[in-house]
Give the backbone structure.
Amino acid sequence: SGTPVASLVLASANPPKDCPSELLAAVADALAADLGFEVILLGGPSRRERSMVAQIRRQAGRPPVDATGDSVRRLMTRIAGSSLVIAPDTGPLHIAHAMGVPVIGLFGHTNPWRVGPYRRFRDLVIDRYTDPGAPPDPADYLPKSGRMETITVRDVLEKVEVARWRYL
């Protein structure tokens, strides 16, 4: 079909880098209901990720497709078939970037100017790591707790609009 696919990456190996499931459920709803995307959830088979899938599917008005699993090859195929990927600082973010798939990076715990997408798609980064009013500092590497929870649905949807306008 001609329906664009938005892939939401659930988690990283480091839980403080993850976004709350409530945020992802609300983003999934907006992508499906308001913007016409087919929404799929990407991630691994861990107990934490399975729990997130269940929470998001329960919280979302339009439950997204569960495409989680333990095959890296299948993950890469799903990313390659996506119009857009939304991910915290984790492997699939970098895979999407390397494949040229527009990726919205969700950063709060880690510094996007140090570990985020290089060159391409920098305009799609949500940076809650850098203190408000401070210049980005690529040398800063210390993790910052509690910052992922400050990312809002509006923040993500504003970047989705940038992606739609520039890349899709």
User: Anything to note?
Assistant: The two ends are 16 Å apart (CA to CA). The chain is about 40% helix and 15% strand. Residues 21-34 form the longest helix (14 residues). The chain has a mean pLDDT of 96.
